[in-house]
């Protein structure tokens, strides 16, 4: 089978002919129909993230090994199953939960394999979906698509799930103001999710009026252009000067993070999600005096993916797939994503 693999970071992916894995026990071999092209794939390809003071945080220091087949947003058809798989049948369409853990650490024991101490995520720590087929370690990581389109379902496993987790962690109550910073793919997904699972007033912050208009169409009540005005003042203006009960920062860089913190009302919660890099200087007395909660969110747990797929099936959320590539075009897909040309999601159809 063909797979597009990162052999060395910063060098073009190579299309390799690799052996077809044979599923054993509860393993499942899935024929990939759609693999989402995600910003994390770019970080893998580039070999890391920008940390404080421009220090580069290498993925290899976090246990990633190359060569690697990337791709963690995988939807496809069951091709073959190990002898102990139950509840699924050959030819069934499924979405793969990629955030797999080793199964025994404190996070895994409460079903949060996405934050496992020794992660084994597909497309990051083991071969993923930029391939004709992918070996899924257990049928317990599969969600039935039941009629959902594989191309629009693929990104639910990553950006959708991340947005879902972030909205849940923000914990906005009816009547609260929930600020969403960044109207990219994640932010727009979060607006739709917040609209369907909370009764909060949703405010969205971005520098791009087109994206803000899209957020409004999808259900945001207030839009704030942070390029044209002071976003902190914008939030204060719509909250009688108190600030917001919850803020989700999907950018989370040195520019947005201080503003996100300053938008909070007393007892407010800031959920930090974006991986755009940088560092934040904290006014330490302010955190206790205003009783803030700062928390991070990284992807989400399997149970949340099941809930999210159910929302998608009820047409409560839509993900926009704007570009489709073949496996041979994997490098172009990453280049286009890097250049910022892709609106919504790009997918690879092997
Ligand atoms: Zn992703
Ligand atoms: Zn674990």
Short note summarizing the structure:
The protein has about 350 residues and is an alpha/beta fold.
Please describe what this structure looks like.
This protein has two domains: 2-158 and 300-348, Quinone Oxidoreductase, Chain A, domain 1 (Alpha-Beta Complex), CATH 3.90.180; 161-296, Rossmann fold (3-Layer(aba) Sandwich), CATH 3.40.50. The protein is 26% helix and 25% strand. It is built from eleven helices and 17 strands. It has helices at 39-46, 106-109, 150-154, 159-170, 185-197, 209-217, 231-237, 256-262, 286-289, 302-313, 330-338; strands spanning 2-5, 14-17, 28-37, 48-50, 56-58, 74-81, 93-96, 133-136, 142-144, 177-181, 201-206, 222-225, 244-249, 264-272, 293-296, 321-325, 345-348. Helix 5 (185-197) links the parallel strand 10 and strand 11 (201-206). Helix 4 (159-170) crosses helix 5. The protein is globular and about 60 Å long. The structure holds zinc ion (2 copies). The site of one zinc ion (ZN) has 8 residues, from helix 2. It is an enzyme of class 1 (oxidoreductase).
Shape: globular
Whole-number average pLDDT? 94
CATH uppermost class of the largest domain? Alpha Beta
CATH topology of the largest domain: Quinone Oxidoreductase, Chain A, domain 1
Strand segment tally: 17
The low-confidence runs, each spanning 5 or more residues with pLDDT under 50, are none
Rounded to an integer, what's the Rg over CA atoms? 20 Å
Distance between the terminal alpha carbons, to the nearest Å?
A: 10 Å
Helix proportion of residues, in percent? 25-40%
Bound molecules: zinc ion
Name the CATH architecture of the largest domain. Alpha-Beta Complex
Let me know the largest β-sheet.
Answer: 7 strands, mixed
Number of helices: 11
Number of discrete domains: 2
Sheet/helix structural class: alpha/beta
Order of helices and strands: EEEHEEEEHEEHHEHEHEHEHEHEHEHE
Assigned CATH superfamily of the largest domain: Medium-chain alcohol dehydrogenases, catalytic domain
How large a portion of the residues is in β-strands, by DSSP E?
15-25%
């Amino acid at each position: 089978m063909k797979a597009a693999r990162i052999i060395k970071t910063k060098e073009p992916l190579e299309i390799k002919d690799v052996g077809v894995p044979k599923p054993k026990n509860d393993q499942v071999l899935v024929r990939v129909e759609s693999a989402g092209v995600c910003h994390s794939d770019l970080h893998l390809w580039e070999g890391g993230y920008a940390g404080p003071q421009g220090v580069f945080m290498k993925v290899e220091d976090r246990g990633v090994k190359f060569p690697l087949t990337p791709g963690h947003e995988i939807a496809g058809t069951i091709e073959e199953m190990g002898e102990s798989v139950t509840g699924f049948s050959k030819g069934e369409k499924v979405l793969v939960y990629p955030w797999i853990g080793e199964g025994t650490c404190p996070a895994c024991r409460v079903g949060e394999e996405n934050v496992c101490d020794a992660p084994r995520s597909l497309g990051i720590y083991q071969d993923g979906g930029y391939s004709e087929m992918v070996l899924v370690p257990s049928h317990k990581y599969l969600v039935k698509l039941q009629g959902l389109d594989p191309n629009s379902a693929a990104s639910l496993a990553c950006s959708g799930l991340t947005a879902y987790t972030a909205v849940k962690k923000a914990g906005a109550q009816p009547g609260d103001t929930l600020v969403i910073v960044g109207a990219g793919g994640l932010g727009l997904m979060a607006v739709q999710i917040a609209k369907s699972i909370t009764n909060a007033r949703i405010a969205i912050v971005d520098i791009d009026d087109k994206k803000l208009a899209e957020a409004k169409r999808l259900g945001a009540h207030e839009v704030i252009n942070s390029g044209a005005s002071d976003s902190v003042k914008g939030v204060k203006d719509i909250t009688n000067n108190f600030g917001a009960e919850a803020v989700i920062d999907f950018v989370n860089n040195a520019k947005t993070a201080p503003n996100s913190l300053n938008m909070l009302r007393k007892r407010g919660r800031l959920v930090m999600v974006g991986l755009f890099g940088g560092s934040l200087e904290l006014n330490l007395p302010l955190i206790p005096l205003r009783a803030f909660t700062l928390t991070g969110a990284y992807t989400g747990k399997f149970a949340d993916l099941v809930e999210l797929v159910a929302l998608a099936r009820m047409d409560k959320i839509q993900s926009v797939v704007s570009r489709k590539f073949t496996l041979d075009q994997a490098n172009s897909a990453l280049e286009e994503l890097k250049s910022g040309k892709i609106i919504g999601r790009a997918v690879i159809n092997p």
